[in-house]
Amino acid sequence: MGSINRGLTMHLSKKSLEFARSHIQRFYTSDFFPSLDVLDALWADWDEVVKSLSGKPIQELGRLPLSMQAPKARGGYRVVHDPNPLDSLAYAAIAYTLAPYIDTRREKLGDRVFSYKLSVNERGDFFDEGHNGFQSYTSKSFELAKNFDYVLITDIAAFYNQIYLHRLQSAIELCDSRLATISSAVEEFMLNLNERVSIGIPVGPAPSIILAETALLDVDQWIQHRGCDYVRYVDDFRIFSNSELELETILQDLVGYLYKNHRLTLSSEKTFILPSAELIDRYLDSPDSRERAVIHANIAQSIASQTSLAFRTAYVENPPSWDKLTSEERSQLLNSMMDSILGHDSLDLGLARHLLRRAKHARLRAIIAPLLDNIEFFSPVFRDVCLYLDSVMNEAAINRNLDCFEKIIAKPSIITKSSFCSMWLRWLITRHQAYSQSQVVRDFVVGELKPLRFQADYARLFAHESWVKEHRSNWQQFGALDRWSLLLAASVLGVRERTVWMNQVLRSSEDLIDRAIARYVLSFR
Predict the structure, then answer these.
(1) CA 145 to CA 63: how far, in whole Å?
(2) Do the bridges between strand 150-155 and strand 66-71 make them parallel or antiparallel, or are there none, so unpaired?
(3) What share of the chain is helix, strand, coil (3-state, %, to 5)?
(4) Measured distance CA(220)–CA(421) in Å, rounded
(5) N or C terminus of the chain: which is more exposed, having fewer CB within 10 Å?
(6) Which residues pair with 155 in a beta bridge?
(7) DSSP letters for 155-222
(8) Phi first, then psi: what are they for 199, rounded to 5°?
(9) What are phi and psi of 66, to 5 degrees?
């Protein structure tokens, strides 16, 4: 745990920063953005990074993160964030310091909150990977729905973007009186991330999950004091009662409490009271249960020719799990799930992510064709799409599907017009040389007025010295992401050229990341 002192300023401990490094190495800086190659330079220059971050008060850290608009399943966009790499380290170190105190307070709520189970360890984990919070949330909802006639379903509108930072500071302090100083320092850090705007926390980094949970602890307490049985998953609440009128009264009071104490509002589109039986029919169907249903249907169909009733009954009533399926059966299952997803007007986010992650971990290409044919439909989970394709696409698979990528790029659509989706697509293309066989695909990355960071990644992938030399003299004029990618591309130059350039960077730049990259590139032989 990070050290806590009662001085006027707060500093990050080396232990908390070591955890932050382990966390980012194992996971990500943001759940919505590709991992930056610049992180390798920071790990290589780690002693300097620790010295710099621990030497500054937390109150002096933090700057505006990268933000983009990511597509949503039912139309519209949400703003998502990726903090500067140094701020990502600081943010994770802060969350590591606070997590034990937050967890202690949350445990007092009992089995009502299922968002995430904190399990901080030296490997960089914040959460218990074996804990399926949504499945537990669904199971508890089912149990309560059987015992009560009605349920109030609601969630908070634009929750992360509307968290009031001063209320968050108070919530942190209430977890333990010893957190008074650090809670104020954290508030200052968050204000710096927001350019001094007092509302909102970044959407995407894992530490935001912990802070968001903290902000709702008093809301959980308020509901419990009303004597209600309820469950919560992140900002989704289900409150149960045998009286529809009682739930209407609770809803009215909850709206007032959230506004008065947090300046939060409920989503009118996602707030309603309905019979518990309807909750079971409409909402208590998790991706895992739907996968089992597809397994059930596939097996029932495939064994229909069996003459033994006992054989058919045994397999239909107790179908094997995913782990026991053959590769062919898994591919059949994935395609059946794909058909189910494409059969609806809007994307089922949970089932789509479940499908893509199953296919990624099993390294199965069975769904590539329908996925590419319906790529725009999957834009709300485009990160998962690209991570899946990156894991299964070798040169032969790229060659077979290169015409599909050309059509995706040539057709005006959300994939090419959205800065978020096009960022991920360019990231994917610069990971594999085989994509360069297509002029259409190549121009999408390196054509005129394209983002320089991906042009630099492309130059590094193909060792295009001429491109690097062309942009070398202007390296100080570019924004951070473009500049860092350009400096990393210096690795393709000859030893003498890159040595001269990187020494110039060390003499002229005060940016810690610029300097880390320079030392990193100088280490190449």
Answers:
(1) 46
(2) unpaired
(3) 65, 10, 30
(4) 36
(5) C
(6) 236
(7) EBTTHHHH-BHHHHHHHHHHH-GGGHHHHHHHHHHHHHHTTT-SB---SS-HHHHHHHHHHTHHHHHH
(8) -125, 135
(9) -65, 135
249: left (phi over 0), alpha (psi -120 to 50) or beta: alpha
**How far is 25 from 35, CA to CA, in rounded Å?**
9
Whether 303 contacts 173, CB under 8 Å: no
Secondary structure of 225-239 in HEC code, one letter for each residue: HCCCEEEEECCEEEE
Antiparallel, parallel or unpaired: β 150-155 and 236-241: antiparallel
Spatial CB neighbours of 48, under 8 Å, sequence gap ≥ 6 = 512, 515, 516
Beta-carbon contacts of 397 under 8 Å, excluding residues fewer than 6 positions away, are 365, 368
The tokens describing 448, both together, are 């005129």
Q: Which amino acid is at 73?
A: A
Q: For every one of its 525 residues, what pLDDT tens digit does the chain have, with 9 covering 90 and above?
A: 444 444 457 899 999 999 999 999 999 999 999 999 999 999 999 999 999 999 999 999 999 999 999 999 888 999 999 999 999 999 999 999 999 999 888 888 778 899 888 999 999 999 988 888 888 888 899 999 999 999 999 999 999 999 999 999 999 999 999 999 999 999 999 999 999 999 999 999 999 999 999 999 999 999 999 998 999 999 999 999 999 999 999 999 999 999 999 999 999 999 999 999 999 888 786 565 555 555 545 544 543 444 444 433 443 445 567 788 889 888 988 998 899 899 989 998 888 998 999 999 999 999 999 999 999 999 999 999 999 999 999 999 999 999 999 999 998 999 999 999 999 999 999 999 999 999 999 999 998 778 999 999 999 999 999 999 999 999 999 999 999 999 999 999 999 999 999 999 999 999 999 999 999 999 997
- Reduce the secondary structure of 187-199 to three states and give it as a string: HHHHHHHCCCCCE
| Cα 88 from Cα 192, distance rounded (Å) | 13
Q: How far apart are CA 323 and CA 310, in angstroms?
A: 24
Residue given tokens 């299952």 in the structure block: 333
| 41 vs 83: CA distance, rounded Å | 17
- Per residue in 31-54, is it b (16+ CB within 10 Å) or e — as a string? bbbbbbebbebbebbeeebbeebb
Q: How far is residue 410 from each of residues 374, 407, 414, measured CA to CA in Å? A: 15, 5, 12
Compute the half-sphere exposure of residue 413: CA atoms within 13 Å on the CB side of its CA.
18
Please work out, in degrees rounded to the nearest 5, the angle formed at the alpha carbon of residue 436 by the alpha carbons of 431 and 439: 140
Say how many CA atoms lie within 13 Å of 8 toward its Cβ: 0
The values of phi and psi at residue 463, to 5°, are: 55, 50
Distance CA(447)–CA(440), nearest Å, equals 9
* Token pair belonging to 375: 């790529």
DSSP string covering 336-353, please? Answer: HHHHHHHTSSS--HHHHH
The continuous run of DSSP H or E covering 396 comes out as: helix 395-410
